[in-house]
Amino acid sequence: MRNVLISGAGVAGGTLAWYLARAGFAVTVVDRAPGPRSGGQAIDVRGVALDVVDRMGLGDRMRAVRTRMRGMSMVDGDGHELFRSEEFALSSGRLDSPDFEVLRDDLVAILHEATDVEYVFDDSITALTEEPHGVRVEFARGGFRTFDLVVGADGLHSAVRRLAFGPAEDYLRHLGQYLAIFPTANFLGLADWQVWFQHEETGGVAYPVRDNAELRVTLGFGSEPLPRLSVPEQKKLVAERLAGVGWEVPKLLDAMAEAEVFYFDAMAQIRMDRWTTGRIALVGDAGYCASPLSGQGTSLALVGAYVLAQEARPRGARRGLRGLRDAHAALRRAQPGAGHRKPRRPGVGRVVGAGEVRDQPRLRKSTSAADVRSGTSRWGKCPTPGQISGSACGPAQRTDADAVSGRTQVSSAPCSCSVGAAIRPPTASVNRRPSPRNWARNAQR
Ligand SMILES: Cc1cc2nc3c(=O)[nH]c(=O)nc-3n(C[C@H](O)[C@H](O)[C@H](O)COP(=O)(O)OP(=O)(O)OC[C@H]3O[C@@H](n4cnc5c(N)ncnc54)[C@H](O)[C@@H]3O)c2cc1C
């Protein structure tokens, strides 16, 4: 039996572990967190990624804990509603979509519970050495082990990427924004309704989760890349940058100061020209982070993990390593500008009018890396932050791969740009009503 080490017990790591274990690999997952990580906002499972979780038999469990927003408001500094929608929510897209939005911690917990592999928490990889018959891995808590394959699923700031491919600066593209995310009690009394605000280079959203008992708050601001900061320094900076912003922001900043679970990171993308080196590979944000602005990172992680494992499965565990490497080589060729072959007819639904999707792309019985290369798995391309216009990012979005293949691409929803969308002032999509209503009253309706 071949053994695989996966660094990162997040979405990509958990999914890859599940599929590889089923294919007969002995899987170990190491994560530097003390357990499955809590915190974060809701993240989206879209398009072909729905098939990935359904094939694991976990789709219904995830849908059972999905967020259930009735809509959203955008408010100004006085709490006056500038815009409202009961058709879509900025975090997730159309409310009638088969795509679903689920709290990141719920998704990761479900993956963790369902995956019968060796998990090692509170540890991380400090050195990787390729040897003739495996990769020698050294760990922060001491000791070393040798694995046939090592996969970095350790997110935007991947240690595996740094150790095997070089420093983050070589691959990281900063998008000019930072986000802070934390939970607090639902002191705003929101009922299945999300409220967004924006003010100059800052913005944010609060929405209720867990039967409206809890609020998940995201606060963002525009900034050049920052040096590494401690959590108290991060909170101080967020408070400084959002000082003087109206609405309920002062109370949200007070809540942030008390929050024990706190996530702060840059909006950034990872762009690489290869995802494998020898027996070491990358999947998810570690290799191709699209940023939360895209609303696609989770689906990309799910499908990337699935394709890797799917390539290994028919070959059996013994030949699986070559399959994994082939899959990565194929995925790499599918990257923008990397010389695409003419696509086969993709097994997807009809292309329909702007912003409309009647049939979701579906995975065929056995979707392979070649399908990804040919465009069977498709997502819209998120615009750069400067192009984001408050509520929707443009209905018909073409990926670079589509540009190469000449196909029309329809995104599955108004781009669910996360709070980054709110950092820019709203444009034409904002309906400035003559007699603004109070957001809180609306939120209760
Ligand atoms: C706490 C948290 C909150 C997030 N909140 C949001 C959100 O609100 N909205 C959004 O769009 N996206 C959010 N993301 C990112 C989102 O989860 C990913 O973009 C997407 O799901 C792709 O998943 P991934 O598995 O590739 O990476 P991630 O989900 O980032 O998972 C990476 C995993 O690797 C672990 N890890 C990191 N470094 C190391 C290391 N050196 N050694 C071992 N393990 C390591 C992390 O603890 C984590 O468990 C969040 C990520 C995290 C970690």
Textual characterization of the structure:
With 445 residues, the chain is of the alpha/beta class. The chain is built from 14 helices and 20 strands. It has helices at residues 11-22, 48-55, 59-64, 104-114, 159-165, 231-241, 249-258, 285-288, 297-312, 316-333, 369-374, 400-405, 420-423, 439-444, and strands spanning 3-7, 26-31, 42-45, 71-75, 81-85, 88-89, 93-94, 100-103, 118-121, 125-131, 134-139, 144-147, 149-152, 172-185, 193-199, 202-209, 214-222, 263-270, 276-277, 280-282. The strands form 5 sheets. The chain has a 7-stranded mixed β-sheet. Strands 9-2-1-13-20-19 form a 6-stranded mixed β-sheet, with helices on both faces. Strands 10-11-12 form a 3-stranded antiparallel β-sheet. A hairpin with a 4-residue loop joins β16 (202-209) and β17 (214-222). The longest helix is centred in the C-terminal third of the chain and has 18 residues, at 316-333. It is globular and about 65 Å long. Mean pLDDT is 77; it is low at 335-362, 364-419 and 421-445. It binds flavin-adenine dinucleotide (FAD). Flavin-adenine dinucleotide binds at residues 7-13, 30-33, 37, 39-41, 43, 104, 124, 153-155, 157, 159, 181, 263, 284-285, 292, 297-298, 301, 418. Residues 7-13, 30-33, 37, 39-41, 43, 104, 124, 153-155, 157, 159, 181, 263, 284-285, 292, 297-298, 301, 418 line the site of flavin-adenine dinucleotide.
Unreliable stretches? 335-362, 364-419, 421-445
Roughly what is the average pLDDT, rounded to an integer?
Answer: 77
SS field, number of helical segments: 14
Order of the strands making up the biggest sheet: 5-4-15-16-17-14-18
Sheet with the most strands? 7 strands, mixed
